[in-house]
Amino acid sequence: MSKRSPFLISCMAFGFAFLYVPLLLLMIYSFNDSKLVTVWGGFSTRWYGELFQDDQILGAARTSLVIAAMSATLSTILGTICGLVLARFGRFRGRTLFSGMITAPLVMPEVITGLSILLLFVALEQLIGWPEGRGMTTITIAHVTFTMAYVTIIIQSRLGQMDESIEEAAMDLGARPLKVFFLITLPIIAPALLSGWLLSFTLSLDDLVIASFTAGPSSTTLPMVVFSSVRLGVTPKINALATLLVSAAAFCIVIAAIIMRRAERERERAIAKAMAEQEQM
Amino acid sequence: MSQFARNLQDQVARAEKGGSIPTDTPRSIIQIQNVTRKFGDFVAVNDVSLTIYEGELFSLLGGSGCGKTTLLRMLAGFETPSSGRILIDGQDMTHIPPFERPVNMMFQSYALFPHMTVEQNVAFGLKQDGMPSAEVKKRVAEMLDIVELSALGKRKPHQLSGGQRQRVALVRALAKRPKVLLLDEPLGALDKKLRERTQLELVNIQESLGVTFVVVTHDQEEAMTMSCRVAIMNQGRILQVDTPHAMYEYPNTRFVAEFFGSVNMFEGILVEDEADHVVIDCPELSRPIYVSHGVSGREGGTAYAAIRPEKVALSKEEPADTSRNCSTGVVQDIVYLGGESTYLVKLDSGRVVRVSLQNAYRAAEPEITWDDRVWISWQPSNVVVVSS
Amino acid sequence: MSTELDPLTGGATVSPAPGAAATVAEQTKADAPPPRPKHRLYRVLFRGPLALRGRGLVIAIPYLWLLLFFLTPFAIVLKISFAEFMVGVPPYTPLVEWVDDTYLKITLAFSGYKYLLEDSMYVNAYLGSLRIAATATVLCLLLGYPMAYGIARSSPSTRNVLLLLVVLPFWTSFLIRVYAWIGILKNNGLLNNALMGLGIINEPIEMLNTEFAIYIGIVYSYLPFMILPLYTTLEKLDGSLLEAAMDLGCRPWKAFLKVTLPLSMPGIVAGCMLVFIPSVGEFVIPDLLGGASTLMIGKVMWNEFFQNRDWPTASAVAIAMLILLVLPIVGFQRYQLVQEEKAREGSK
Ligand SMILES: Nc1ncnc2c1ncn2[C@@H]1O[C@H](COP(=O)(O)OP(=O)(O)O)[C@@H](O)[C@H]1O
Ligand SMILES: [Mg+2]
Q: What GO cellular-component annotations does this UniProt entry give (chain C) (predicted)?
């Protein structure tokens, strides 16, 4: 069974075509000169030009990036603490509720999360006068709350794979728990922290529903702008924007994959070298 | 075993017997007092009391899951006893966290910090103590020199072979000059050849530094090669603490006799119980077993007689005294092991007895061979009566 | 004794246990640092009656965050679903009209839920969500399984590239990926144009704003979530098991049914959960691809909130979703976790 049957091959071909043809079409038609998105009117980059003159889109993009960076940072910090607590702290009172609250956002429909946190903000404003209206702060808080679950899971599973005796060894050599965390644990799980941050960043950048609930009039995010203009129909400008977004993501992913591959190879080579030295001994 | 270890052993033996030799009595460095550790209902370590002396290489020997690691981790401070006390150098350390204990541990997985170089690994503990960096540097160089790894100081752990990693882990734990070094299966991850060589290296380092070593191992030969004294554990309890020699020659229980080397165990009835000898009637043997030392058994009760395979004589001729300590049988199988051969002799009762003979000569044809009818016999002083 | 033999240990003592008894190293005690007061502070903070201080602090930060921003909101949603909290907050509840009377309040309080039961739209939307999500999950499995199987059977280097291709769309905008299908499925979209151009059809087929479009959208968006867990279990699968089955006389197809399929069950369950759960509450896909007539609960709630501005009803829908959807899912996951743990203990 090591060979892939023709059936498998055609399934895979169909699957990958299904995944990529829509994106490719989108990108091709972003260079369409015609305003009618589905009719080819010759090659042109005019939609890109118009995109970069659209202050609403540019402003929303800036808002989205700021929110994504802030919420990713905060949710990485909180998620790391949660992952550490779940992976290393053993039993404590209220643990079940804690782990429940961490994993629940993963299965919670976005509309519920969005509505509930909005109602909280409204109630809080009535009660203590904070937050005053809604805006980037409220969106950030909402995003942190739902993305930290993902970070927690990444960190928790990384800590689960990590040999706990490495931390014990540090403690045995005289380092206090806090020092062990910063000198040993954190550097070792740093790649997981990075993936957690990137995931939160992407989720936040991508979110429409929760942001729509928690946004104020002056804090429109990019997905909200895209959504409202898409509802009015397909527009070439959005095609151009989509092309840029997809290319940026693809570029980052491919670069990251290449770097990781190279590091992995180097590591393998080092191990092989050490093994060879051992043989000679 | 070196002369040093030999002397220490003698001193320890005297101290254990309560002898008072004021000048060179070994000082106890670890005292474990009635320590029990439970995980839920499961008792991993059961009422263990043990004294370990300064400068000795002490082994905890036992099968997998018998609680060795748990006991060691309680010494290091990673587990807290459910009851009992642990004293290190006279101080009650039962509830002191690991980072405040004057002991260090070498982990079974080595637990090297993957993001630090060899030098940084070794320096880690010293830096935690606030040692000046010049001194740290000197000590690290010194330590790496001991294990001949000076050239590899700038490498990361994944660039090292298994044996090199093992040595880094060893000197990292030794760098702080702990009063006691705890080693959890230090050689478990090495292949057989490397392991045998490293055993001797470890003993040399231990003796030259004079640090007390507590070694956990499941390998009986390893414990025998390295240790001044050995404690045998089973199901959370310590069955016997003794020198390897005493453990082999005078096991006190069936378990110890069978765990520590191979043995022929005979179950019988104690028919004669005198101060200087006992007689055991064993249905599997045609003659009674005469033992030339007294035991604290009950006449008429069940007794176990242990006879090591190499202490059984094998011959085609009838022994001088056929009234006791012998039996007849047929050679069922011969296992050639190089230096010696093990003969499996099937007695008339059907019981199979193992007999080891040295292959001292390169004779083409052994004198005794398959299906020969033979006599087995042994000296009364070579039988040990053990409790179940 | 050891004194003459060890020039090294005699040098300096490194671990000054407080008040250490006399040792060989005692002579050099003078230049050892004095006991640090830090220890005492540590003891006060981390041991004794206040033992949990340090640990507790670490737990408290995320705990309080989640309590405030995740748990309390549900209490508020529950309250508002009974429509009593919003009295006198005109900017937010323009549609709610009730007088401040205890008896009247109670009648109104249940009306939100009664409304859910009486108006068949809500029940239909709820059932519709389940049906659509389940169908889409099955479609996803049918496409994802052979893909995952094919990837797992590829050579290691191809495998990495293929996996990368599977994950890549996930990192690009979800909204954009749904949007891409509008241009394709529209009446004058690319697919209809192509089919008409080829002469297969004469009139455009209505594809956008149908359930078919929603299926496409869900399968397209969530396919990576199906493939990844499936791939993980299939890749771990020991190839010699299949060989053994065939050696014992199983035909390949039967060997697949009897060996591979049952062994990949954990991956199937995980993948289906990952697709089913988010698609039940999905809003963007039914809204953009399903058109106005689609009844999915997430969209209904969105409309209730943003179009009707009926907060109490939206809250009641949310509570109903929580009880009828989220709790069963959480229960199922707990059950699975317990089963897994049992299996793990059993295998020990
Ligand atoms: N943290 C723990 N929780 C529950 N059981 C444990 C724990 N640590 C050890 N045990 C159990 O205690 C027993 C002894 O373990 P250990 O000391 O590691 O044995 P070994 O002699 O092989 O080193 C084992 O049965 C193990 O399952
Ligand atoms: Mg162990």
A: plasma membrane
Closest CA to C146 of A1, A4, A18, A23: A4
pLDDT in tens, C15-33: 333 333 333 333 333 344 4
Determine the Cα–Cα distance for residues A145 and A214; give it in Å rounded to an integer.
12
Cβ–Cβ below 8 Å for C186 and A18: no
Q: Which one of B38, B45, B69 would you pick to mutate in the ligand 1 pocket, going by the greatest count of ligand atoms within 8 A of its CB?
A: B69
Residue at token pair 């009880």: C323
Q: Pick from B254, B271, B301: which residue ends a domain? A: B254
- Looking from the CA of B55 toward its CB, the CA atoms found within 13 Å total 25
Judge contact between C288 and C182, C-beta under 8 A.
Answer: yes
Could you tell me how many helices (H) and strands (E) chain B has, helices first? 9, 20
Please report residues of C whose CB lies closer than 8 A to that of B55: 1-2
Pairing outcome for strands B180-184 and B212-217: parallel
Nearest-CA residue of chain C relative to B206?
C6
Determine contact, residues B338/B359, Cβ cutoff 8 Å.
Answer: yes
Peptide bond into A131 cis (omega under 30): yes
Whether residue B283 is found in the same domain as residue B371: yes
Neighbours of B241 (CB within 10 A): 19
Ramachandran angles phi, psi of B266, nearest 5°: -115, 130
Contact B210 C11 (CB under 8 A): no
Are the C-beta atoms of B101 and B181 separated by less than 8 Å?
no
Domain span at residue B8 reads 3-102+178-254
Taking the CA of B73 as reference, the closest ligand is: 1
How far is it, in rounded angstroms, from Cα C318 to Cα C77? Answer: 8
Q: Among positive and negative, which fits the CA dihedral A242, A243, A248, A252?
A: positive
Site residues for ligand 1, CB cut-off 6 Å: B 39, 42, 44, 62, 64-70
Say what the pLDDT of residue A131 is: 84
* 158-177 in chain A: CB under 8 A from chain C: 174, 176-177
Burial class (CB in 10 A: 0-12, 13-18, 19+), B351: middle
A117 touches chain C (CB under 8 A): yes
Q: Taking the complete model, does pTM exceed 0.95, yes or no?
A: no
With beta carbons under 8 A apart, name residues in chain C contacting A221: none
Domain tally for chain B? 2
Interatomic CA distance for residues C68 and A224, integer angstroms = 26
- B249 with B292, same domain: the answer is no
CA of B120 to the centre of ligand 2 (A): 27
> Do B315 and B271 sit in the same domain of this protein?
yes
* B101: chain C residues, CB-CB within 8 Å: 15, 17
Structure tokens at A31: 């260079």
Domain CATH for B305: 2.40.50.140
What is the arithmetic mean of pLDDT over C237-253? 77
What ipTM was reported for this prediction?
A: 0.90
C119-346 is a CATH 3.90.1640.30 domain: no
Of A170, A176, A188, the CB nearest to B124: A170
Say whether both B242 and B292 belong to one domain: no
